């Protein structure tokens, strides 16, 4: 049995589980309706203004930094598998990559991007 | 040492004697699906019971003790109750994304769950890029959480989802880096081979100091990944009611609850597989008599023993520390764990090469 087919099986199982539980709940659970029930929850008083509000720009900064380091991890995984065969040569070559990345982190740190203001 | 792959082969041969090629495959796929589903559901019920009981003991309470002996049927009763609860329709939600979020969260956790090696041969998926797969699929859950918070049209869920997203993606880096150092040590990404390589000595001992540092980083980062304990700001109940799943009710809330508990188990199981030898018994080179005695304990018991040890650590941390602020949380990741993780990788590479 190939892994791709097994992965598809698990994926379909997950979707089936959610669908089946939703259908069972729809069949078993009671339904009642009144206008106040559909209001978004906020301490018992009606909400004020739109809920899709602006949020802090700091979240974006962390998302961009994350992107840089996540791509780095992705690039390092294939290297990690063969590092034993590459020996000291492989380490020297990758350490350039590491230095450039660390410089990026240091730059962000000095710029105050890691500070939550 | 008994391995489950014998049973796999036996079932395969048994089916092939009675059925044609295509039907055999079909029956096997259905068997795999049923096994994964059953294990997922049973483990969820078990984990909820264990968590409530252990938390109760930490707080000098008794915990659930009315339904069934020692309250073991409590979580079954809760599951039936949650199926019977009404799913409330909120007026201004984005209906498609609101429903899609449950699917994504469950898919992320079930697909990760399928790749865990419980025993030799007892895993649904065994990619040769297993570690990569685990990281990739488990990060799908972030999308589900962000969608849940965004589509609910509520300020609490919105803030909870943004916090949760920032926390999950930040701590994923440390998870990735500490798993990377184990890949450097083992030279393979296939989970079954990683476990096989630990048959003489677990990686946490084989890798000396770097492996231990990686293990500690993984436990901290993994704990933050599950949104629990001192890192539970996405659902800080004194500020945000319930965080990103405030507007979900009935079984839709149940999915988030289920995924959260299973993620705790999955993180613990990955820690056990990568660092503590998975289903391999404790073997010490040279001590042959003790190694033989250890072989008598079945591998599944070893796996669950190690995993529940990690789960217990997570619960302990949860009740021992107060909640962090978001700036402290992000500083811990970006200023402490990430630099240590990067240096740790270089250390591990030196250890492997020299």
Summarize the structure.
The complex is a heterodimer of chains A (117) and B (354). With 117 residues, chain A is mainly alpha-helical.
- Which structural class do the helices and strands of chain A define? mainly alpha
* CATH fold-type name of chain A: Methane Monooxygenase Hydroxylase, Chain G, domain 1
Strand pairing plus helix content of chain B: what structural class?
A: mainly alpha
Q: Residue ranges of chain B: pLDDT <50 for 5 or more in a row?
A: none
Shape of chain A: flat
Number of beta-strand segments of chain B: 0
The secondary-structure element order of chain A is HHH
**What's the level 1 CATH class of chain A?**
Mainly Alpha
Strand content of chain B: under 5%
Mean pLDDT of chain B: 84
CATH homologous superfamily assignment of chain A: NADH:ubiquinone/plastoquinone oxidoreductase, chain 3
Rounded radius of gyration of chain A (Å): 25 Å
What percentage of amino acids of chain A are in beta strands? under 5%
Q: Give the chain pair forming the largest contact, with residue counts.
A: A-B, 65 and 78 residues
How far apart the termini of chain A lie comes to 53 Å
Series of H and E elements of chain B? HHHHHHHHHHHHHHH
Q: What is the domain total for the residues of chain B? A: 1
Uncertain stretches of 5 or more adjacent residues of chain A:
none
Shape of chain B: globular
Q: What can you tell me about this protein's structure?
A:
The complex is a heterodimer of chains A (117) and B (354). Chain A is 68% helix and 0% strand. With 117 residues, chain A is mostly helical. Chain A has one domain (3-111): Up-down Bundle (Methane Monooxygenase Hydroxylase, Chain G, domain 1). The longest helix of chain A is centred in the middle third of the chain and has 29 residues, at 58-86. Chain B has one domain. In chain B, helix 2 runs parallel beside helix 14 (299-320). Chain B is globular, with a radius of gyration of 21 Å. The mean pLDDT of chain B is 84. Classes of the chains: A mainly alpha (117), B mainly alpha (354). Chains A and B meet through helix 1, helix 2 and helix 3 of A and helix 2, helix 4, helix 5, helix 7 and helix 12 of B.
């Amino acid at each position: 049995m190939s892994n791709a087919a097994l992965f598809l099986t698990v994926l379909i199982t997950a979707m089936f589980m959610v669908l089946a539980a939703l259908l069972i709940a729809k069949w078993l659970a009671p339904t009642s309706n009144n206008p106040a029930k559909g209001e978004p929850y906020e301490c018992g008083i009606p909400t004020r203004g739109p809920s899709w509000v602006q949020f802090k720009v700091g979240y974006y900064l962390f998302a961009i930094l994350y992107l840089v380091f996540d791509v780095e991890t992705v690039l390092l995984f294939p290297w990690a598998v063969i590092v034993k065969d590459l020996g000291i040569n492989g380490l020297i070559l990758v350490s350039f990559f590491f230095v450039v990345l660390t410089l990026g982190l240091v730059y962000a740190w000095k710029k105050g991007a890691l500070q939550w203001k | 040492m008994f391995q489950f792959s014998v049973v796999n082969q036996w079932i395969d041969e048994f089916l092939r004697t009675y059925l044609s090629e295509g039907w055999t495959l079909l029956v096997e796929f259905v068997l795999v699906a049923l096994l994964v589903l059953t294990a997922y559901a049973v483990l969820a019920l078990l984990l909820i019971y264990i968590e409530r009981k252990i938390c109760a003991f930490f707080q000098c309470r008794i915990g659930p003790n009315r339904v069934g002996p020692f309250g073991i049927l409590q979580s079954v009763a809760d599951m039936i109750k949650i199926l019977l609860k009404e799913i409330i329709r909120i007026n201004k939600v984005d209906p498609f994304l609101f429903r899609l979020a449950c699917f994504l969260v469950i898919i992320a956790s079930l697909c990760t769950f399928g790749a865990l090696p419980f025993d030799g041969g007892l895993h649904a998926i065994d990619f040769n890029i297993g570690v990569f797969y685990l990281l990739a699929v488990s990060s799908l859950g972030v999308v589900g959480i962000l969608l849940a918070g965004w589509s609910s049209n509520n300020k609490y869920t919105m803030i909870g989802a943004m916090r949760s997203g920032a926390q999950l993606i930040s701590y994923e880096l440390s998870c990735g880096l500490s798993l990377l150092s184990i890949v450097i040590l083992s030279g393979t990404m296939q989970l079954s081979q990683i476990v096989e390589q630990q048959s003489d000595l677990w990686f946490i001992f084989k890798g000396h100091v770097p492996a231990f540092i990686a293990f500690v980083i993984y436990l901290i980062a993994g704990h933050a990944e599950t949104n629990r304990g001192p890192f539970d700001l996405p659902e800080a109940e004194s500020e945000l009611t319930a965080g990103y799943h405030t507007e979900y009710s009935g079984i839709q809330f149940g999915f988030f609850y289920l995924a959260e508990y299973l993620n705790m188990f999955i993180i613990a199981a990955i820690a056990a597989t990568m660092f503590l030898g998975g289903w391999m018994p404790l073997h010490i080179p040279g001590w042959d008599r003790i190694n033989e005695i250890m072989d008598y304990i079945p591998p599944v018991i070893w796996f669950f023993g190690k995993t529940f040890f990690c789960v217990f650590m997570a619960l302990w941390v949860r009740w021992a520390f107060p909640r962090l602020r978001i700036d402290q949380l992000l500083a811990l990741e970006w200023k402490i764990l990430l630099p240590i993780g990067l240096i740790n990788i270089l250390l591990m590479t030196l250890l492997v090469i020299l």
